[in-house]
Amino acid sequence: MPDKINLLVTGLNGIVGQALRPALEERYTISALSRSGVDGLPPERVFKADIADFESLRPAFEGIDVVLNLAADGGLSSEAGMNAGWDSMLKNNIIGAYNVLEMAKQTGVARVILTSSGATSNGYELEEPYKSLVSTEDVEIPDSWEMVNEFSEPKPVSLYGVTKLFGEDLGRYYALTSDLSVINLRISSCGPIDKAGPGRAQANWSSYRDIQQLTVKIIEAPVDLKFDIFWATSDNRKLFRDNAHAKKVLGYAPQDGVR
To answer: How many domains, in total, are found in the chain?
Structure first.
């Protein structure tokens, strides 16, 4: 990687993009790609394009070292949440992920970071002990529980989660068949306010500075890290989305957590 990484971010206007932006602007030369544009960046580094329109993406990718793909429908930034319509999720999460990876391959990008989601594994929360760990009620918490790591069986309970699993496997394909490094960042609970709410966030929360730290470590990881999946979680007392893999591979050291 060069000394000053040229970073392209799609979906920078979203909740996660805004949480990450201060740390990214401090370290990298940032360009942004979105349908509506982004304020506060030089005009030559703001690209307006539809992520589902392949050729419209090309100008934004020229000269880029790393792409952080936050663009999606069905997550926290979506008006419909995880119940976004299939047509929109197909366009943004599946076709869009393919277009980003294929364009990155064609233009010589070194690494693509795909934002995945806790929705890949939300089915665990229908079962004990995880059901109790995410409950808003005052329920008894077990002394210990089996952690859900990046390679545990996926358990999506929404089509949004299915589209994010597709993105992870598409990334694996590109990592195996091209020079691209593809890293999947499973966003857990990161909302418009940097604070854990009741219920699920008590277990799954990621503070802004923790997700910033983890994203920076992924961007700057050695080039021989070809493919991986990491949970973005702080060190919460009820944590079950296991961040141990990120600690081991990247040296991730969360500074926050719900105690």
So the answer is: 1
Encoded amino acid at 118, one letter = G
The answer to whether 110 touches 181, Cβ cutoff 8 Å, is yes
Max CA-CA distance within the chain? 55
Whole-angstrom distance, CA of residue 26 vs CA of residue 40: 13
CA 173 to chain centre: 18
Q: Looking at residue 51, which CATH number applies to its domain?
A: 3.40.50.720
256 domain-assigned: no
Distance CA 71, CA 14 (A): 8
User: How many beta carbons lie within 10 A of that of residue 10, not counting itself?
Assistant: 26
Residue 174 one-letter amino acid: Y
pLDDT tens by residue, 70-98 = 999 886 666 767 778 999 999 999 999 99
In a domain, 66, yes or no: yes
Question: In this structure, how many other beta carbons lie within 10 angstroms of the beta carbon of residue 123?
Answer: 16
Specify if 95 maps to a domain.
Answer: yes
What's the whole-model pTM score?
0.95
Expressed as residue numbers, the domain containing 51 is: 6-250
Residue position matching structure tokens 């030369």: 29
